Amino acid sequence: MPVARTHCVGLVGVTGRLVEVEADVGPGIAGTHFIGLLDTAISEARGRVRSALINSRLAWPDARVTVSLFPATLPKRGSIFDLAIAIAVLGAAGAVPAQRIAAPVFVGELGLDGRVRPIRGVLPAALAAAEAGVRTIVVPALNAAEAALVPDLTVVPVAALGELVGWLRSGDLHRLPVVDDAASLAQDAEHTGDVGQPEHGGHGARTKQNAHTEHEGHGGRGARTKQGEHADHGGHGARTKQSAVAVHGGYAWRVEDASRPAGPYGGDGGAPGPDLCDVAGQPMGRKALEVCAAGGHNLWMLGPPGSGKTMLAERLPTLLPSLDQEKALEVSAIHSVAGTLPPGRPLLTRPPFVAPHHSATMAAVVGGGSGGVVRPGAVSLAHRGVLFLDEAPEFATTVLDSLRQPLESGTVTIARAVGTVTFPARFMLVMAANPCPCGLQGTVGHPCKCTPAGRRRYLDRLSGPLLDRVDVKVKIGRATRAELLADRHFVETSATVAERVRLARERAAKRLAGTPWRTNAEVSSSALHRDFRLPDAAMAPLHRGLDVGTLSARGLDRVLRISWTLADLSCKDRPDQAETSAALALWLGVD
Questions:
Q1: Predicted TM-score (pTM) of this structure
Q2: Distance CA 464, CA 449 (A)
Q3: Please, are residues 478 and 443 in contact by the beta-carbon 8 Å criterion?
Q4: What pLDDT band is residue 294 in, cutting at 50, 70 and 90?
């Protein structure tokens, strides 16, 4: 019999590579042989695929079966190849037409009973397939909403291997449920808050409720499709629309509560989420939050327990603008690989908020794993969002210092014996710390119980090079009753401050047009001193800091970036001495 070929996608980090899956059924001693730099999960696929075929009432070839995954030099891991291997073997055995399986990409894990189970990384796999020119992708039904986010890609969701084989033999579109395009997913989100959530008890995917035709098949397991929706590539599914990829009802996500429904600012869909007006008695903290949100700066807060540090950090995402289409897909792809996409919400449209516990290891924070599988860490899960380290001095020193490289480059590279993997890690770092181990230093009526050496050792865990990369440092004190009552008249809602942040970011984006940067925190040192050089009068406070040694060369660049952010918030074309002095005070942490 001729060799049958189909395609799958191998993931290296969050980058997908098209993999050609070949199967040959020929004479020789009966057995199955895999070649192509495989890991244990793929080597075990022979048992899963064989049982899935037999339990789907399909014959397993009683011959020598050879399966090759090309390119052989690319490491291949996970069960994502199960479905492609099964289809290639069936094509080589003549059970399905070989010409029908040559063009599409097949991804999915097979159960022993023939079910097609959901997998991680469908979104980056679909993106890689589209970039390689593939027009059709077959995915597990529960992952269909992810794949439908990719424009110009036909998505065919399947729930069972038998259904897929029947469709490949007949080419009848009505034999399989078809996921609707991303526009319908977005409209469902507006009306039901359930974006692309598969219908339980069936194998279909929920689509538009109006203007649909019900196709019943396989025991009533049909799915609704829009009238007039055309079949592409001989009935290979429904084509998604390029202009409809944004899902409404965005949210901020936290590692500890990934399943939380999305409200305007990350709370319950109907309940109010965190708001900046909740934090009273901390005007300096709120101002620091606004500056960091406007310029994308890092923040360090020092203060006793109960002063509001965590409340402030949790409200930072409410001030940030929503992610555009490109960034939303980028962030969603990372969470897809990590398996942390909230149920029913395949597209993250709000900046993520990640808060690991202080006992987290370096692999959990930076990324890593065992057995050759490298997963993104907290710094990558917080990409385009906020990474919050509460009780920062309690983290291991090695973990804290490992943040220095991604803070500078916006990426993190993990090296292993089998190769290197690079994850994006452009995040805003927010750290909170007590002034001493007991947290009572400087509080009125509560004397500190720590020794001077203990206090020094506690804060020394935050190394100088790490703090040098933090733009804004602010001291948060406990507010008195009078301060709380007085500040209630001046607090502003997150929506009010977010509007100022949006306008400041628009001013910065207009100034940085034609450059690779979009926020002040991203501007390079050479551009700060060449293209955006300030007059000597504005630089005078910074020159004095350099002369007395309170300001380093890296610190100078960060103060200049804060100065431009303050100017954008004040609607000024350039910073003057007032902005540079205020920026220097924020960088030094002066009250």
A1: 0.82
A2: 26
A3: yes
A4: very high
